[in-house]
């Protein structure tokens, strides 16, 4: 850590969290880029694929063949301009697309065809924030120049187990998540009165969380599925240089339902509706990465169009992502996408898009492969 502070004028500036109120907040709520992304992320807690290890391990209990899953998406960024009065500055943030990388890799292994349950292993990026701030403010005759870059990236390595009843009406699951939380904070600030503040802090902390979940299909309602999962809070270690900024990964509670409507287009097509809520609990209060209670709502639909011997899923959705702490802003997002499911159903391909309200756009490619029928 390098820090230098000269003069009282900068102390009056106070890098208060309220100053970044427009920075789009995906610190904990990044969509990993799976099939559900095009439907507003509304199918994760009720889904059954390799991403279930991260969202709800009960989902892998329904799988009876080994599967491999992958997702590749961009990691959103934002740029913020500061101006106006030093005591009450104006901030203007614009979203950017950001670079792309693998956001999920997973593998599931049924034990005796799933009769003894299913093991799942995965790597998933579950939270990301990257903001660059620059600009100048004035207070009387003193001008303050500031540049600040902040980045946070949460990577989850999950080992999970799921087990479903023989009639597939109920499944439970649990898992252990090893978390790598990277934090970077680089500040360069000076004023015309000779004051200077320089800070360069960066470290990667590690922590462990437990995750448990349930999925159920009520008797007499085979087209309806409910899901709920809970991930515990994770205390980070090995992050002494950034512990005052971000020292705990918040706990998460998820719940949702999905409903399938059959009989469309002469019985060849069907429609799936999804609704999901994610609640992230408060943590790291008062820090630059302050975390208050944050409740994210995901809703969407998926129309499965029969084409030849396969299916083409068409998706539409909306994600309501409010600010998750003092100093952040919302990132409500309109989503759409499509996929392809061949007749043998051995593999699935998905392409999803998202258009956030504050600019930028997201693109994700997903692939799922079954090793045997």
Number of domains: 1
Helix content: under 10%
Averaged pLDDT, please? 91
* Share of β-strand residues: over 45%
Shape: elongated
Catalogue the unreliable spans. 1-20
Query: From the coordinates shown, what is the CATH architecture?
Result: Beta Barrel
Q: Would you count the extended β strands for me?
A: 19
CATH T-level topology: Porin
The DSSP helix count reads 2
Folded structure, characterized:
The structure is a single chain. The strands form two sheets. Strands 2-5-6-7-8-9-10-13-14-15-16-17-18-19 form a 14-stranded antiparallel barrel. A two-stranded antiparallel ribbon has the order 11-12. The model is unreliable at 1-20 (pLDDT under 50). The radius of gyration is 22 Å and the shape is elongated. It has 373 residues and is an all-beta fold. Helix content is 3%, strand content 58%. The protein has a single domain (3-370), classed as Porin (Beta Barrel). The chain contains two helices and 19 strands.
Topology:
Blueprint: E1 3-6, H1 8-13, H2 52-55, E2 67-74, E3 77-84, E4 89-96, E5 100-110, E6 118-139, E7 142-164, E8 170-191, E9 196-216, E10 224-231, E11 234-235, E12 248-249, E13 252-264, E14 269-280, E15 294-307, E16 310-320, E17 333-340, E18 347-356, E19 362-370
Parallel strand pairs: 3-6
Antiparallel strand pairs: 1-9, 2-5, 2-19, 3-4, 5-6, 6-7, 7-8, 8-9, 9-10, 10-13, 11-12, 13-14, 14-15, 15-16, 16-17, 17-18, 18-19
